[in-house]
UniProtKB/TrEMBL annotation:
Molecular functions (GO terms): aspartic-type endopeptidase activity
Keyword terms, alphabetized: Aspartyl protease, Glycoprotein, Hydrolase, Protease, Signal
GO terms for biological process, alphabetical: proteolysis
Family matches, as InterPro entries: Aspartic_peptidase_A1, Aspartic_peptidase_AS, Pepsin-like_plant, PEPTIDASE_A1, Peptidase_aspartic_dom_sf, Plant_Aspart_Prot_A1, TAXi_C, TAXi_N
Domain Peptidase A1: from-to ranges: 128-490
Family designation: Belongs to the peptidase A1 family.
Protein name stated in the entry: Peptidase A1 domain-containing protein
Gene3D superfamilies: Acid Proteases
Active site residues according to the UniProt entry: 146, 368
Amino acid composition bias (Basic and acidic residues), ranges on this chain: 27-37, 79-93
Organism: Marchantia polymorpha (Common liverwort)
Signal peptide: 1-20
């Protein structure tokens, strides 16, 4: 039996390798580099990262969902299994966000959060990943794209306790542009002034010490990663397909990870922080590309075949016709927005405003790309479910999917027929109405004879926060206009190519550049996934020798 299993895995590996379009240079990214070929001395470190090599005003990347074939085995989960998996990961994500927010509020005073998650999670549950390229010569990695985190970090050599990853660890000795920061460096000072003291115990605020700037980044389930804050050149793709180099990008060079739960393990190499903190990816590069980014998440039915565009700079506004904006309310790591009410068929529900209010430490609504399903407080969810049930000609039935409280029998109807009979749900934000489509509102399961629809919004497990998850953001063009402290949204067909305004590019057409960038991305990620599969084959061979 073990022999058959190994032969199956080897066969699958051969198929994967045969369909991978990587060049030899992509499969061995630094094949021609000499790790000893680097100048002596440390590179200079200006106050902020600035782009070099051209007037780059917009950059692009692609987000790959966890159900994309590049990350998951096709057909490995049933509809019910996938929905329950996403519900559980959403619960765990909400607890991580809660703990992270409390740590932020603790500030530089060293206070610890009163709330600590007791649920485990796994980095394989990360909703979206992207590739990043760092160092001179470049070293490429696959990392989680996270709007709920600030610090970008990678596992680095030498590493005392690192989780297994498909790519080689980032090697500082192979990059001529790498340098560790000291406590006196401005980037370290920004980090120490904004985060709790237990995250940077060796560097007091306003320190002039030449000691290395260490970090200790903790997660809600008790997992953590620790190492040095360093700088290196990050290589980005501009919207015309050219490479834009950004020197002195600050990131965490992790040399130790700890996780009883499995959070820090899996098929990625680190994390890209897209939050509001001073050390986040968009914060560091804001001066260069205008402090604005956007994404357009393909719908659930498209994640298996398509990736989602992530744009930084003026190109982020290329698809924003008709967009509505709501203010970002607080200067924290997370993106809080003001949810005023929820409406069904244009009628606000009788939910007290206090349900959505933030008192400075608790409550409020977080806009988050890393949570799958929107989570509402019980009072709000029950009001929404009751209102929907009263306006649909379907019989409410007990849910057969764990985590979803409101389901109805729609047997004999197609999704198109069902959509004609359901009212529109709207989130009424400060200054903007966010109308959900049928696909953003419901999960549909079963067949034409026995059809079930369930409200794709779950009961929040936190004390008071609500979270707008990515299931409700799909086929919506979302703009994080950080320069003006606002988030915008407008319905779009994200499965179609997202256009890039010619005025935001220099050189070749946006269509060809997007295609070339996408090809490079997919080739790089496919090579990573090939190595993941190889590791799995080797693990089976080790456990079940032939």
């Amino acid at each position: 039996m073990a022999s058959s299993l190994v032969l199956c895995l080897v066969s699958l590996l051969m198929v994967t390798i045969s369909t991978t379009t990587c060049t030899p240079q992509e499969l061995n990214r630094d094949a021609n580099s000499d790790p000893t070929d680097r100048p002596s001395g440390s590179p200079g470190r200006p106050e902020t990262a600035e782009m070099s090599g051209g007037p780059w005003r917009s950059i692009q990347a692609e987000l790959v969902h966890k159900d994309h074939p590049l990350r998951a085995a096709p057909g490995s989960l049933s509809f019910k299994e996938r929905a329950e998996r996403d519900f559980q990961s959403s619960r765990r994500r909400s607890e991580v966000l809660r703990s992270r927010h409390e740590r932020w509020l603790a500030g530089g005073g060293g206070g610890l959060p009163t709330y600590v998650s007791n649920l485990s999670t796994n980095v394989n549950e990360a909703e979206y990943v992207m590739t990043i390229s760092l160092g001179t010569p470049a070293q490429n990695f696959v990392a989680i794209a996270d709007t709920g985190s600030d610090l970008t970090w990678l596992q680095c050599q030498p590493c005392a306790h690192c989780f297994p990853q498909a790519d080689p660890l980032y090697d500082p000795s192979r990059s001529s542009s790498h340098a560790n920061l000291t406590c006196a460096d401005s980037a370290c000072q920004r980090f120490t002034s904004q985060y709790p003291a237990d995250w940077h115990s060796n560097c007091p605020v306003q320190s002039s010490s030449n000691a290395s700037c260490n970090f200790f980044y903790a997660y809600g389930d008790g997992s953590n990663t620790t190492g040095d804050i360093a700088v290196d050149t990050i290589h980005l793709t501009s919207t015309d397909g050219a490479v834009a180099d950004v020197p002195n990008f600050a990131f965490g060079c992790s040399q130790s990870t700890f996780s009883d739960s499995g959070l820090l393990s899996g098929n990625v190499d680190g994390l890209v922080g897209l939050g509001q903190g001073d050390i986040s990816f968009p914060s560091q590069l804001g001066a260069s590309f205008g402090n604005i980014f956007s994404y357009c998440l393909v719908p659930a039915k498209g994640v298996a075949t398509q990736t989602s565009p992530l744009l930084f700079g003026s190109a982020a506004l290329s698809n924003a016709t008709g967009i509505q904006y709501t203010p970002i309310l607080y200067n924290t790591s997370l993106y809080f927005v003001g949810l005023q009410a929820i409406s069904v068929a244009g009628q606000p529900l009788g939910i007290p405003s206090s349900v959505f209010a933030n008192n400075g430490t608790d409550g409020g609504t977080i806009f988050d790309s890393g949570t799958t399903y929107t989570q509402l407080q019980p009072q709000a969810l029950d009001a929404l479910g009751t209102a929907l049930g009263g306006k649909m000609p379907f019989t409410q039935i007990p849910s057969t999917i764990n985590g979803f409280d409101y389901c109805w029998d729609a047997s004999g109807l197609t999704d198109a027929d069902i959509a004609k009979h359901v009212p529109t749900v709207s989130f009424n934000f400060t200054g903007a109405n966010y109308d959900l489509s049928f696909d953003n509102t419901f999960l549909t399961g079963g067949d034409a004879l026995f059809r079930t629809i369930c409200l794709a919004i779950s009961r929040g497990v936190l004390v008071s926060e609500s979270i707008i998850g990515n299931y409700q953001q799909r086929n919506v063009y979302v703009v994080y206009d950080r320069a003006n402290s606002q988030i915008g949204f407008v319905p779009r067909n994200c499965g179609e190519a997202v256009s890039v305004s010619p005025s935001t590019t220099t050189g070749t057409s946006s269509a060809s550049s997007s295609a070339s960038a996408g090809t490079r991305f997919r080739a790089g990620l496919e090579s990573v996934m090939t190595r993941v599969l190889l590791l799995q084959v080797l693990s089976v061979l080790y456990l079940y020798p032939l």
